[in-house]
Design brief:
The chain has 8 helices and 7 strands, in the order ααβαβαβαβαβαβαβ. It is an alpha/beta fold and 226 residues long. The structure holds S-adenosylmethionine.
């Protein structure tokens, strides 16, 4: 695991000036993208594993090497945690795990836009959903690559449950909090999130905390759409 990291550099000084307009436009259009044939098997595998186990469903979206998936499974032993990442390379990496053996998690390779659409179509509502250190896409022109600026965002919110996002780029969390407030009417705020590297939930969190970055998060209990 790396021990140093650079702060995020961006050509934005604060939340994107077009954030509210982009979020509102996406909320007005039903998200439509054909489901990928490659997404069906990992989705079915994850949902079947959860249904066999039972308990509340927790999604670790963009789980990387799956370390946070295990940590969440350890923290919530009665729940079932599904870690999803598009990177086969990261998922295959054998990151050392010194915790107990766990049978309440699974990790799978899938594209999150596809996975979230499948959850919404199947009317599956995770109890908790974590977006831990998503790629920041920090350039002004990249707003629509950040999850709150993406056209899938209203679909993600429709899943309901507790949603938490963490980042080392404060603007990402400020924008996420504004977008959540805009679409739900629930006031969401950015919080500073002090982390002892020894207690980090994810490898990125550990790396940033060990490098002295200030970390940020926001969270919401989403109303369920159906
Ligand atoms: C910065 S890494 C953070 C990984 C992990 N959450 C952590 O904190 O250590 C972002 C992760 O999101 C994954 N990711 C980004 N876009 C994705 C997408 N559209 N579908 C699935 N995974 C995605 C990447 O492959 C990468 O592993």
């Amino acid at each position: 695991m790396q021990t140093t990291s650079r702060p995020v550099t961006s050509n934005q000084a604060g939340p994107h000036l077009r954030l509210a307009e982009v979020v509102a436009r996406h909320a007005q259009q039903a998200f439509r993208k054909p489901l990928s044939v490659f997404g069906e098997q990992p989705f079915d595998q994850a949902i079947n594993a959860w249904q066999r186990h039972g308990g509340a469903l927790i999604i670790d979206a963009g789980c990387g090497v799956g370390w946070s998936t295990r940590k969440l499974a350890q923290q919530f032993p009665d729940a079932f945690v599904v870690g999803v990442d598009q990177s086969a390379h990261r998922l295959r990496r054998n990151t050392p795990w010194s915790g107990p053996a766990l049978n309440n998690f699974i990790t799978g390779r899938a594209e999150l836009v596809d996975f979230w659409q499948r959850l919404a179509l199947a009317r599956i509502h995770p109890a908790q959903h974590y977006l831990l250190y998503p790629n920041p896409w920090p350039k002004k022109a990249q707003l629509q690559r950040r999850w709150h600026g993406h056209s899938i965002f209203p679909t993600l919110l429709s899943l309901g449950g507790y949603l938490e996002c963490r980042s080392n780029w404060k603007i990402y969390i400020d924008e996420m909090a504004l977008a959540l407030t805009q679409l739900t009417g629930i006031e969401v705020h950015t919080e500073q999130w002090p982390v002892d590297p020894a207690d980090a939930l994810t490898p990125f969190e550990q790396k940033y905390a060990a490098s002295g970055h200030t970390l940020w998060r926001c969270a919401i209990h989403l109303p369920q759409a159906d």
